[in-house]
Amino acid sequence: MIRFSANLSMLFREVPELERPAAARRAGFEAVEMQFPYDHEAVQWRAALDTAGVELVLYNIPAGDFMTGGQGLAGVPGREDAFREAVAQAAQAARVLRPRNVNVLAGCPGPEHDRERCLDTLAANLQYAARVMADIGVGVVIEAINSVDRPGYLIDRTQAALAAIDRAGHPNLRLQYDIYHMQVMEGDLIRTLRTHCARIGHIQFADNPGRHEPGTGEIHFGHVFAALDQLPYDGFVGAEYLPSRRTEDTLDWLQGGFRRSAETAR
Prior knowledge:
The chain is an alpha/beta fold. It is built from ten helices and eight strands.
């Protein structure tokens, strides 16, 4: 049985951030995730999660200027100290929020940096984050992000993400597989999920094009969810999409529509 989580940075934006855990629970989610929890004190998020009765499964380690169009931190030579400060911030929050995983965004180093040096920098940073988070019982994942939406992104395919994990060589590292990003870059979603299931720590999804809810684009989520149901995957599947309407009006996939399609596809 697939366990879904709601990404509170993209869903339920009709209400203030600290009210979104409760909105997600009312909609039928038992788990949530977010991109960056750092605009509020961790104890505020903890109270909101506990009141709603939902588990927090994922958030990102701070990524510097990446979200505003900059290079980011993790794969950028010369920014190692800033990355370690970001890991410290994420770990401080994790001691209160107790997520299953934190995600590392590799960033867009730019052509002025040699790619191999960037990959070495990323590997060292991943290894450092994995060590720190292992001490507090939190996993570390890294995702590939499509280089159409994010030109120059250092890790833009599944094999590149797995290679970065191998290069870092720490047992507390796994893959975050984003169905939307990988549909843009490589397709072959179900085969990839089956092949690398044992190495996946978290999954996210949105339809393509548009990054909206299932049913708005080309991905056959009935087949994808059916495949996920059959896999020995023990993580969560995060809804990280831009709702085309009010969030509650885009949840047919959660309420049964795509679940029925999945049963038919088996």
